[in-house]
Amino acid sequence: MTQSTGYAITALGHVAAMGGEPQLIKDIAEATGLPHPYLAKIIHTLARRGLVVTRRGVGGGVTLARAAAGITLHDVAEALDDPLLDERCMLGNAVCSDERACPAHAFWSHHRAAQVAFLRATSLADVAAFEQRQLVRSVA
Question: What is the reported pTM?
Fold first, then answer.
């Protein structure tokens, strides 16, 4: 997974953990330790792709476009064109398939399928639950 996708998942997990209240990008960046300018670009892309809604002005900020349970990590990776979702050869061969398999094909096909299945099965609600547990621990 790319750094952008990881940052997006962390940021959106934080937004989801805040219970639907609009969050300013600077506050998300501060709470998650992510770089503000880079996060702003990521949020802009996610807004264009329909995963978040942004509003300017008083009471504005970033909110999820739909319920956290309805947004998977796969959705986030797909919105950011993460190369993990591309079916490509681990060794960089131009043609690699079941018919013309490189030495890593069986290994990579299995592990890539497991990664994609995990991304499809894990939602931002799962990330938000993790964020809320961390928040409780830090307060205690």
Answer: 0.88
- Could you list the residue range(s) of the whole structural domain that residue 98 is in? 3-139
CATH number of the domain within which 12 lies: 1.10.10.10
pLDDT digit string, tens, across residues 65-106: 999 999 999 999 999 999 888 888 778 777 777 777 888 888
76 Cβ neighbours under 8 A, 6+ residues apart:
5, 8, 9, 12, 46, 51, 124
Distance of CA 11 to the CA centre of its chain: 8
Number of domains the chain is built from: 1
**Strand ranges in 7-138 using DSSP code E only, listed in sequence order:** 52-55, 61-64
